[in-house]
Structures are given as structure tokens and as C-alpha cells.
Amino acid sequence: MIQLGLYALREGVELPVYGTSMSTCFDLSFNPGEASVKGYDEWNNPVNQYINDFGEFFIRPGDRMLVPTGVVMQISRNMTVETFYDIHGAEYKMPLQNYSIRLHARSGLSLKRGLVLANAEGVVDVDYQQEVFVMLWNISKMPATIKKGDRIAQAEVVCNVPISIVKLSSMPQKYSERSDGFGSTGVSLDTETPPMEEWHVDGPTNFA
What we know:
The protein is mainly beta. Helix content is 8%, strand content 35%. The chain is built from three helices and twelve strands, in the order ββββββααβαβββββ. It has helices at 84-88, 90-93, 107-113; strands spanning 2-8, 26-29, 36-40, 46-50, 56-59, 64-77, 99-104, 115-117, 122-125, 131-138, 144-147, 151-159. The strands form three sheets. Strands 1, 3, 4, 6, 8 and 10 form a six-stranded antiparallel β-sheet that branches. Strands 2-12-7-9 form a four-stranded antiparallel β-sheet, with no helix packed on it. Strands 5-11 form a two-stranded antiparallel ribbon. A hairpin with a 5-residue loop joins strand 3 and strand 4. The N and C termini lie far apart (72 Å). The mean pLDDT is 87.
């Protein structure tokens, strides 16, 4: 059995919890340890946003801020003798480096406030045992207020399939009828372009 250990770096830090009994991810919250939050503005200049007496700081439009969570995570293997599978199952043979923690944006923050992850998805490797930070990016046109305890991201433990990387001596063979990328399959189920005589044009058809 794989176990995720969470260590609170500061007093008053609440450990992450699942929102519902069937949630895939657990939520991470803003828990400051210093007087300011560091980041970069839209011109890639370093910026500091100071945390006020109410435990709040502001993310200006275009800014990318490194928001502390106050927790350190550790993936470990918790062995029990309750079942035979615990001892001889696939998880027992899977090395710990094949697990990682993935950070995702929260859908509500993204839709309603324009706060997304600057790196799209955060990856916490199994050997990273320092404080977890969330790279929040304000893509809206309005400043966003973040206060202590606000849920800023969601996370999950992922099992990565072990692979070996090899050098090929020839061009890979095609698996299907795909001929290109970058939109080559179209956006509609009907991907065939009708003959020109069937095109419908609104407005005048006498083009100079």
C-alpha cells in the first residue's frame, strides 16, 4: 500500500483533505511562512507582494506568484500483513520513483477568478521533500486576493508507468491513417470539405 505522509511546517497549518468521499484530488491551501510572496510580473520582473495583517496578499493581472502551502509531502510504502496482496502484489514490486504528486488548477478558481497554474501542471517528484509551492498565475484583468487558508490548487498521487528510452535507427512506422498534427483531424465529426459548388456564401458573391 502506498502512503502519502504530510508534515506541517508551521503551527496552524491544516493538513489537506478530500472535498468528498469520491474525490480524486485533495485540496492544497495558502499557508504563509514569510512576510511576503515572491513571483514575477508579465514582463518577467521579480515582484514581492507583502501579506497584510489579515493574512492576505494580492496577485495583479499577469503576475505569477509562488504561493506556499506550508506542507512537505513524502510518498512511502506502508506494508501490512492483513492480505496476501499487500505483500506480493504489484505495488510491492513497483519502486517508489515510479510515483509522483501532480498539482492541478482548481476549476472554480480558473473559471470565476482567472487563477490558473503557470506551469499548467505541477510535478512533485518522490525525492522532493521540501515545502510544496503552487505557481498561481492571474490571467484575468482584475487583481485577485488570496487569504490564509484559501484553497489554491488540488493534488493527486500518480503511478507512472516505468519506461526505457532507446534510440531508433529508422523513422517510426505509422500506427493509423493520421498524416499530420496540429489540427489535422479537424474540429467536426464531418471532416470532409464539400465541393466548391456546394459552398454557401452570405452576401454578395461578386469578388473583385
